[in-house]
Amino acid sequence: MKLLLIIIEGQIYLAATIAIFVAELAVLFLGVWSRRPIIGLIAVFATVPLIRSTIGAIRACFFRIRAPEGIPLSRTEGRTLYDLVEEIRCAVDAPPVDRITITRGFNAAAAVYSEPWRFRRHRTLVIGFPVLATLTKAELRAVIAHELAHFSSAHDGYAAWIYRIRRSWLALQAALDGRLATPVYVYWFIRWYIPRLSTASAEVARRHEIVADEVAARVAGSAAAADALVAFESGARFAHETHWPAIETSYERAGEPPRPYSEMLGWTARIPSPDVLEELFGPATGPTDTHPSLRDRFNRLEETVRMPPSAVSSAGEELLGIEFQRIASRLDDEWITHNGESWNAHRIEYLDRRAALDRLTAVEVPTADELFKRGELIETLEGAEEALPFYQSAAKQGHPAASLAAGRVLLERMDADGIDLVERAMERDENLVPEACQVLAAYYKETNQELAARKCEWRATRHTTRARLAQGT
To answer: Do 345 and 298 fall within a single domain?
Structure first.
């Protein structure tokens, strides 16, 4: 009831905001029509931006939820998976699923959308390829039951309505902010209203998640539901923190672009380390979280915190067989089409830098400039800490840019000795003042020295102004 009242309140205000925009336009057009000079002058400067703002506000209220992007799985290709979904659907008593879509991300969702000019709603079960490569069949069964529970009459229409309300307000804010045309009364109301709406809607969403977890436990068993939660979260973390960063830097190790989705067929993403497990269960549920914390969900399932068991085969291999490998190959081809050219460019650039570093390394008595360039290459290829000794050596020989680089590295690790190096760089080369002041300001802000940070910003501004005046003369 609380959320319903907040939504009604927001809808009334949204309608009033649009009505004010339209009324302002009407007054401006009236001034032009009646040939009143003052109103006509205002109309010349205000009509066009006001029309754009009004159109943006109206469009924010009307949008269409589009079909999820991904690879549609036909019933012929995924017959076993469709049969499993149908079996679970009957057990959950959910509406029919029109389609299963395999996406690239580590996600699973129940999506409802309507095609243009059609009133019939389509229901799509979205399953990420990495999820199929990580979970077991029993765990996937729990995930599917959880998502299909959101298709039930208790969640389906209500959740979609709340989603539209939140999207309307966020779209309105983005439309107005993008044109720098947000009236004060709208700006303050948005700042006051959206947090309240987010908190109230998040509370309802968490209740839906709890009900969906109970359905998953009833269909797949509480142990499988609990294992699915941990395997899903640890797999998503592995993908974000380990797998994709390795793919992004694979040009350093391989001569050909990687095939990231085929690599998932044998990855070890489901078993978290003890430290990761502790992190997963550490955070408590926040007021704006749309999902309860893992610990709260385990408590509801009456399961103890534990690592999921190892898997003999993934759900994708067991349910899709050879088709799972074909999907991986198709996703790989799409990834290479979009990223292959940039990957090859990075590969060429990396090899050029390695060759340049090898040439500098072979110099027996390097100059200060050669030491600095060597440090730059090492920082790019291996990291800032490895480059620091070379920056420091060049700085001792009076190299200004090396002094700035050494000071920057020290300040990034919160070592105040870097301040003198940065100051010395500015004394030796005034052209380094803007960059050096930026480095110092970032350090001072990080250490809560706001006045010192502001002085650095002023110094950089004065230097830039003097440089522009000098160029003008």
So the answer is: yes
φ, ψ for residue 267, nearest 5 deg: -80, 165
Domain ends where: 46, 61, 76? 61
The residues with which 112 forms a beta bridge, in sequence order, are 123
pLDDT band at 346 (very low <50, low <70, confident <90, very high): very high
Question: Do 204 and 313 have their domain in common?
Answer: yes
Number of structural domains, the chain? 3
227 and 238 housed in the same domain: yes
Residues 320 and 211 in one domain: yes
pLDDT single digits (tens) 180-235: 555 666 667 777 777 777 787 778 778 888 989 999 999 999 999 999 999 999 99
One domain for residues 304 and 207: yes
Q: Which helix (H) or strand (E) element contains residue 237?
A: helix 222-238
Regarding whether 352 and 422 lie in a shared domain, the answer is no
Full strand arrangement of the beta sheet holding 121-128: 71-73, 99-103, 121-128, 108-114
Q: What is the pLDDT of residue 435?
A: 95
Pairwise CA distance, residues 86 & 81, whole Å: 9
Q: Which pair of tokens denotes residue 110?
A: 């129940």
Q: Is 383 left (phi over 0), alpha (psi -120 to 50) or beta?
A: left
Residues forming beta bridges with residue 72, ordered by sequence position: 101
Distance CA(101)–CA(111), nearest Å, equals 10
Please say whether the beta carbons of 319 and 81 come within 8 A: yes
Q: How many CA atoms lie within 13 A of 377 on its CB side?
A: 19
Q: DSSP state, 288? A: T
How many Cα neighbours within 13 Å face the side chain of 381? 19
Tell me the two tokens of residue 271: 């078993």
Cβ(402)–Cβ(375) under 8 Å? yes
Q: Which domain holds residue 11?
A: 2-61
Q: Are residues 285 and 146 in the same domain?
A: yes
